[in-house]
Write a structure and sequence with these properties.
Chain lengths: ~110, ~250
């Protein structure tokens, strides 16, 4: 079970620049490590975070094994109209996690 | 002269008392960037565990399908300030319990649920959630009555030289505070930020995990998670930190 956190304002004025911060639990296992008995630990990383705002992509980040566990991403965007933000994390092994939140633009 | 000696002793005592450094939170030894990360709930990765705990709080579990909220209601009001009083004596069993033990005892007794294993994300999450609700409040555990012998045992553990390095807790955490040790700075050993997110661990961890790391560091026996000796020590540390603010979830190196 993944836990994700989105911290962003619920409301904004039209044209305002808003800060968006995201966190998700994930081990981001590099695939380069070995366990106690010398067996390779399988690579398991989130490949991508994609964010859409009212259907339009506003942020995309590709992640590599150098990214620490529980990746944090912060970005800004301009509030244009009331709409839904959809945050989609996609793991390299096919797993996905989606969070949704709505921004109301006054 | 006879009258002078007690006076001198008093003066020496006064100097000693004045010399004792005020305790500082390990937060103040962090870089400004890490301090900012701890202070910002959007960037503090420990908040992921707090969030997990908040979800668990209202999730029914066990035979009676009860949740924590079923008895305790809204944690924001019912749990505010609770963590400042832990570890505390459980009146029913007479044992000293930390938050983790209290949560598990509640699960067994009132929810007929399976206790969480120590250091699982679920137990860390609930503990972090409850402790987080006392953030900014001052530690104030009780050490009188039935807690007195437990406090005394914890105090003894703290000042006892241990392991191959033959070191007692105070020799680092009082005498060497602020100095560098293995890429980190030595803290006052308050434990007020736990469960904390440690970059070293790449995840949140309990105070007992941190105590085990110290035991290993002085080449002493690592006690089990939840060991009564560690809970006694936790009480001593909590009382020693009286008046210091709870910071859970802290970010540490």
């Amino acid at each position: 079970m993944r836990t994700a956190r989105i911290v962003m304002p619920k409301t904004a004025k039209k044209g305002e620049i808003i800060d968006i911060k995201t966190l998700i639990t994930h081990p981001m296992e590099t695939g380069y490590r070995r366990d106690d008995v010398g067996a390779a630990i399988a690579r398991d990383i989130i490949g991508q975070l994609r964010v859409t705002y009212a259907g339009t992509e506003v942020f995309r980040m590709t992640m590599f094994p150098g990214v620490a566990a529980n990746p944090f991403a912060a970005f800004t965007t301009i509030a244009t109209a009331t709409g839904e933000f959809v945050f989609t994390w996609t793991g390299e092994n096919g797993e996905g996690h989606v969070e949704r939140t709505t921004l109301t633009v006054a | 002269m006879k009258r002078l000696i007690p006076a001198l002793m008093l003066a020496t005592l006064a100097v000693c008392a004045a010399k004792a450094e005020p305790l500082t939170s390990a937060r103040e030894l962090l870089s400004p960037e890490l301090q900012a990360q701890q202070a910002d709930d959007g960037a503090n990765p420990g908040m992921l565990w707090v969030e997990r705990g908040a979800n668990l709080w209202t999730t029914p579990d066990g035979q009676g399908a009860k949740s924590c909220a079923g008895c305790h209601g809204d944690a924001k009001t019912s749990m505010r300030g609770v963590a400042t009083r832990y570890p505390s004596i459980d009146t029913a069993s007479g044992t000293l319990m930390n938050l983790e033990a209290r949560i598990n005892s509640c699960r067994v007794k009132h929810m007929s649920a399976v206790p969480f294993k120590y250091e699982t994300d679920d137990l860390l999450g609930l503990t972090a959630y409850v402790a987080h609700l006392s953030r900014g409040l001052s530690m104030a555990p009780r050490i009188d009555g039935p807690a007195a012998p437990r406090y005394e045992a914890g105090r003894k553990f703290y000042f006892e030289r241990q392991g191959q390095h033959n070191l007692a807790c105070n020799q680092c955490h009082e005498a060497q505070v602020g100095k560098r040790l293995r890429g980190d700075r030595i803290s006052s050993g308050l434990g007020t930020g736990y469960p904390a997110y440690r970059l070293d661990w790449q995840r949140a961890g309990s105070l007992h995990r941190r105590l085990r790391a110290c035991s290993l560091g002085v080449r002493a026996e690592q006690l089990e998670y939840g060991a009564p000796e560690y809970v006694d020590l936790e009480l001593y540390l909590a009382h020693r930190a009286s008046g210091m603010s709870i910071e859970t979830p802290a970010v540490r190196k």
